[in-house]
Structure formats: structure tokens, C-alpha cells
């Protein structure tokens, strides 16, 4: 077993980089400690620190992706709702006025046409919503094929509407 040595901050950071690489390659803590000339307990503490940093990075990334998917969902859903609104066409033409004045008068006509909505926008909204649900494991099935009991946060998110985003 290697003797414990005091590491400088620079050495500690360099060792953590190496520990990270070797750990992710599948090396065990004892072999990593032997390679770096440090105690196995030091490697264990560094791995624990690294895992905490990885978790923070992953959570930050997850929050960023969630925010982006929520924006995509909201924009696509609102665009789909707008695409369902009636199309309004207004036309103006000049027609002859009364015979006394000889002036032309404008004739305005408005036509409304019902719309069924752009399905591509709905597909985009559904894809973003599916990504959000997958991030939270809402639709995860267990080995028996039935839905697992979801944590409270997932239950709340599952019932969210457009105004909640």
C-alpha cells in the first residue's frame, strides 16, 4: 500500500482528472491508488467528490433541456391553436354609386373559413411533451409491463396543462 502524501491543489486536480478517466474506464480504486501513489481511501474520497460534481452537471443540463423542451412545447402548441382559428379574407371593390352624385362607393366583403389546424405543429408539441415526460420517467414501465408508482413531482407534472408551463 502506498504511503499517504500531502497533495497540492494542482496535484489534487490533476489526480482527479486521472482518477476520473481511469474510473470511467473501469479501473478499481486500489489499482488507481497504486498507479498514482496515493491511498485507496483518497481515491475513494475523490471518486465521491467527482460523482457529486457529475450529478450537479447532469442536473444543470437536465434543467436546461427541460426549459428548452417546455419552450418548444408551449410555442408549438400555441401556434397549433392559432392555426385552428378561422381564416378571414376581406375584399374591397369600388362600385358605382347613386346616379345623382356619380361617385363610386366601396363595397367591403368579409369571408370566414374554418381551419382544422396544422398537424405538423401538433406533432412538434407532442414530441416536446413526450421528451419532458421521459425526462421525469412518467411513462416508465416496470418489467411486468405495468406502470410503476411515480414520485409526487411526476404526478404533478403529469396533470399539467399549457398554462402551467
Short description:
The chain has one domain. The chain contains 5 helices and 2 strands; from the N terminus they run αααββαα. The chain has helices at 9-24, 29-36, 40-83, 119-135, 152-158, and strands at 87-96, 104-113.
What would you note in describing this structure?
With 165 residues, the protein is α+β, with helices and mostly antiparallel strands. The chain has one domain. It is built from five helices and two strands; from the N terminus they run αααββαα. A two-stranded antiparallel sheet has the order 1-2. A hairpin with a 7-residue loop joins strand 1 and strand 2. Helix 1 crosses helix 3, helix 2 crosses helix 3 and helix 3 runs antiparallel to helix 4. The longest helix is centred in the middle third of the chain and has 44 residues. It is rod-shaped and about 110 Å long. It starts with 8 loop residues before the first helix and ends in a 7-residue tail after the last helix. About 8% of the residues have low confidence.
Topology:
Elements lengths: L8 H16 L4 H8 L3 H44 L3 E10 L7 E10 L5 H17 L16 H7 L7
Antiparallel strand pairs: 1-2
Helix pairs in contact: 1-3, 2-3, 3-4
